[in-house]
Design goal:
The chain is an alpha/beta fold. It has 14 helices and seven strands. Strand 1 and strand 2 form a beta hairpin. The longest helix is centred in the middle third of the chain and has 19 residues.
Length: 286
């Protein structure tokens, strides 16, 4: 019996976030601890009356303090490029590649000397902890994807599948072709497109390629994803012994419902979390 798209869409979840989704404090504290000694040395500059001279002496005595500087600007890289009327510079903060005077210029022009010397902050360890929390929030998108993958994987296991035997995680299309001697060139644009499936299930005579995602907010990415998966759905219909499965959810889809519905109309194996909760995996892989 054909499913009703509108009824199906109404079951989509607002969120699947767990407590660890928002900030990975273990990672935050770990990153801070790596440079805690150097940060405490830099703390001696707080409130300095002659910060240029004090910084110069500090770098001479403890050159490793330089590696703390990028994170003070919320930068992960060990190198920072800057360009102004005085020229172009690529500062390396792990292996000093400029004179100390040029690093002093960097500290002046970025505002770090003002931040440190004028008591805007009281402790650089606390400051960097806050910076790390902010940087870690950028990882929420990836964590959301991992949560959906974990949720789907739990239902694969519940359906009686075994990792490495009947289901495989993050498998490249080329590896699928090689392992089961199946031609997927129509999906890979004759091998020109590198594709990796979140899960691959081998059950009976059929290889199931599974993609998963969760969108809690709108954006152009949703329409691109729906169109891309519609193409895969149509192309996979012509491949014997192969089936494409898409498990998606999230209230973000309400803004891209038309493209989602187009894929829903051509892809029989398209499911949401409510379907998983209703044991669709057990039925699909029975």
């Amino acid at each position: 019996m054909k499913r009703n798209f509108d009824v199906w869409l109404k079951t989509f979840k607002t969120s699947i976030c767990d407590y660890a989704f928002y900030v990975n404090f273990k990672k935050v504290y770990g990153n801070v601890n790596k440079i805690k000694v150097e940060l405490n040395i830099l703390n001696s500059l707080i409130g300095s009356k002659d910060i240029e001279r004090d910084f110069e002496k500090l770098v001479a005595d403890y050159p490793k303090v330089l590696k703390c500087i990028p994170v003070l600007l919320a930068v992960r890289s060990k190198e920072i490029f800057v360009k102004d009327d005085d020229g172009e510079y690529l500062f390396d903060f792990y292996e000093q590649n400029h004179t100390t005077r040029e690093y002093i210029m960097f500290m002046q022009k970025t505002g770090l000397f003002d931040l440190i010397a004028n008591h805007v902050i009281n402790n650089l360890v606390d400051y960097v902890t806050g910076v790390e929390v902010g940087l870690d929030s950028n990882g929420r998108k990836n964590r959301g994807g991992h949560l959906m993958e974990k949720l789907v994987e739990n239902h694969l296991i519940k359906a009686g599948l075994v990792k490495g035997e009947t289901y495989f995680k993050e498998m490249k299309l080329s590896a699928v072709e090689k392992k089961w001697n199946i031609d997927l060139s129509s999906i890979s644009n004759k091998g020109k497109t590198v594709k990796r499936f979140d899960f691959v299930v081998k059950k009976g005579k059929t290889v199931y390629a599974i993609e998963t995602n969760f969108y809690s907010s709108s954006g152009s990415k949703l329409n691109e994803t729906a169109r891309s998966y519609k193409t895969i759905a149509l192309e996979s219909k012509e491949i014997d012994g192969f089936a494409f499965v898409w498990v998606t959810d999230g209230c973000g889809w309400h803004s891209a419902r038309h493209n989602l519905e187009e894929t829903f109309d051509v892809l029989d194996n398209m499911y949401c979390i409510a379907d998983l909760e209703n044991n669709i995996m057990e039925s699909l892989f029975d």
